[in-house]
Write a structure and sequence with these properties.
Length: 328
């Protein structure tokens, strides 16, 4: 699906006023331009707190300071900007969350509950909030992990995602608040650097391969994890946002793009950079990775809102190397 700057008559009828919370993060920094391209620059309000926003966001549309932990500020912003749609992207990720578990709980959970409470009072139309494969744990089936399964994570990040998923179901059933969520796998981006996740190696490896032709991986060579290329990630969020709610039978969906090991992505990179060398020195993140699935069953997302990724390991690797080689 290709989105352009041309706003059709139907787009104007269905125009949204979108607030992106956490616009400076790995996904948020690419999501904002993507949304502005589809819904119009002035209709997508980007928010930040501590991390500076990219120039492309600051120059292309409205930008404001917003702390999701301040409920009064949320109320003011919802009212003043006439918000009807929210993308809540602000979160402390898995590896960073294990270093600061109390902070991760505060930002991930209290920020979410503030948004849900404020949204139901201001009649927000739709909320998109990403969950994660971190919601799964060592007792979850690791191969072809189903949508409905055991959720017993071993990280604070995962715990907050399970709690958030339960809140999504609760607020939808009790208050009719239309919150939609997808369990994201590891996200690989050519535009933004990693943000403290266990799957970050799959981004770092490209930068190091191109700049230094060597990389030390913090996971084992044979550790397999589900992944997704950023263009597919952004597409999934728009697709789920625009899905007919009458066809959605749940609030949370598995989605995935591909699964591969650290060794497999290294081998794919060597096709383009034969001199590339990799060694493996697993750290605390290996234990986290070992508690997550190797592959994901996303058949329900495919059935209920036509989810269909475009990239596999080979096409993603080629695109990443083409883009980063020109830049670096």
């Amino acid at each position: 699906m290709i989105y352009t700057n041309k706003l059709t008559f139907q787009n104007l009828i269905n125009m949204r006023r979108i607030l992106v919370i956490g616009a400076a993060g790995q996904i948020g920094s690419e999501l904002v331009p993507f949304l502005r391209n589809k819904y119009g620059n002035d209709n997508v309000i980007a928010t930040g707190r501590k991390t500076p926003l990219p120039d492309v966001i600051k120059k292309s549309g409205p930008v404001i300071y917003l702390d999701a932990l301040e409920r009064n500020t949320l109320s003011r912003v919802f009212y003043e900007y006439d918000i009807d749609t929210i993308f809540h992207m602000a979160s402390i990720l898995s590896a960073t969350g294990e270093k600061m578990p109390q902070t991760a709980w505060d930002i991930n959970m209290n920020g979410l509950i503030n948004i849900l409470e404020t949204s139901r009072r201001y009649n927000i139309k739709t909320i998109v909030w990403p969950s994660s494969i971190a919601a799964f744990g060592p007792t979850t089936p690791r191969e072809n992990t189903p949508n409905t399964t055991v959720l017993q994570p071993t990280t604070m990040y995962g715990i907050t995602k399970v709690a958030g998923e339960l809140l999504a179901e609760y607020y939808y059933k009790k208050y009719g608040l239309d919150i939609r969520s997808m369990r994201l796998p590891g996200i690989i981006s050519s535009e933004t650097l990693p943000g403290g996740g266990t799957t970050d190696y799959a981004v770092e490896i490209f930068y190091e391969a191109i700049k230094n032709m060597k990389y030390t991986c913090f996971l084992k060579e044979n550790t397999v994890l589900p992944m997704m290329y950023m263009p597919d990630c952004l597409k999934s969020m728009i697709d789920l946002l625009e899905a007919d709610n009458s066809k959605l039978k749940r609030r949370v969906y598995n989605i995935t793009g591909m699964s591969f090991s650290a060794g497999e992505i290294a081998a794919e990179i060597k096709k383009y950079i034969p001199q590339f060398e990799i060694d493996y020195k697993p750290d605390f993140r290996e234990e986290i990775a070992d508690s997550w699935p190797k592959s994901i069953d996303d058949s329900l997302a495919r059935e209920e809102w036509n989810w269909n990724p475009s990239y596999d390991l080979a096409s993603m690797t080629k695109d990443m190397i083409d883009i980063l080689s020109k830049r670096l």
